[in-house]
Amino acid sequence: MRAVVQRGYGPPAEVLRVRDVCRPAPGEGEVLVRVRAASVHPDVWHVVAGLPRVLRLMGSGLRRPSPAVPGTDVAGTIAAVGAGVHQFAAGDEVFGETTAGMQWRNGGAYAEYVVAQADGLATKPSDTTFEQAATVPTAGLIALLNLPDLETWEPGRRVLVIGAAGGVGAIAVQLARTAGAQVTGVDHSSKLDLLRGLGASRVVDYTQDDVTQGGESYDLVFDVAGVRPYAAYRPILTARGRYVVIGHDHFGARGRRLLGSVPRMIGLMARSFVDPRLPRPTAAPGRRESMARLQELLADGRLTPVVDRTFQLEQAGEAIGHLASGAARGRVVVVP
């Protein structure tokens, strides 16, 4: 089968090539998926670039990644099932993650076929395209993990989403809106119309306005971008407001090539035990249950995936570069 193979760490256009490799076989609890679409997200860039370097000690591989085929989010058709799999059969259309746990490693999705744990998949709703479904798993699971109490929200909660037009941000905007929140979305001027279409009641162009100086206060600041420190947003939180940071290293543009955002995240987690505005670390819900929740949100129309562009396997390096450029509106997709 054809697959994108990563020969080392570095710029995506230089280290990724399409090669013929052996088709994998599903083991116990696994399924073989014929890939119809796979998404490009920041964790894929991290593993291909090998940055921050600490990720190489966290399962990616010291000198080169193992496995060698990138990609973790997939949508496709079940080609075969392994022993012990009863919830799926050949021919079922599914979407989900190909890796369990830590995302800073390759998952084999940029190929014609990939093996995945059955519990990491869900049935694709018939009205959702393969390209749309492939954009949901990682971004959706991150959003659900960091918005754990949506069902208990009272209407009118004021939510600020920073970096609202990316994969995680676009889902957070929609989930908050369907929970009855008044959502303010912050992003580049070229993406504000998208945010309005997703249901944001107010949009802010970060190139023109500083949202912390607008006189508004918020019950939740959902900081996907992670550019500014927590201290910048604390003054605009209500008395019981919460600050949630997703954050990433902006594809190496912000330096921190050794440890990345790890020290900052550890610091915020430690501070959460004395600062009620920071969420304390909690165990993630089961992937099977979370994927079922995303399936439900897709099926009933509360979640509409945003696909920016679609690239062929041979263009995987270009696709990752497009994401890293910051121009993408929503998710970027690779198809075999």
UniProtKB/TrEMBL annotation:
Query: From the UniProt record, which GO molecular function terms apply?
Result: oxidoreductase activity
Q: Where is the signal peptide?
A: none
- What superkingdom heads the lineage? Bacteria
The record places domain Enoyl reductase (ER) at 10-334
InterPro entries associated with the record: ADH-like_N (IPR013154), ER (IPR020843), GroES-like_sf (IPR011032), NAD(P)-bd_dom_sf (IPR036291), YIM1/Zinc_Alcohol_DH_Fams (IPR050700)
- Entry-linked SUPFAM superfamilies: GroES-like (SSF50129), NAD(P)-binding Rossmann-fold domains (SSF51735)
Per its UniProt record, what Pfam families does this chain match? ADH_N, ADH_zinc_N_2
PANTHER family reported for this sequence: ALCOHOL DEHYDROGENASE RELATED (PTHR11695), RETICULON-4-INTERACTING PROTEIN 1, MITOCHONDRIAL (PTHR11695:SF294)
Protein name as annotated: NADPH:quinone reductase
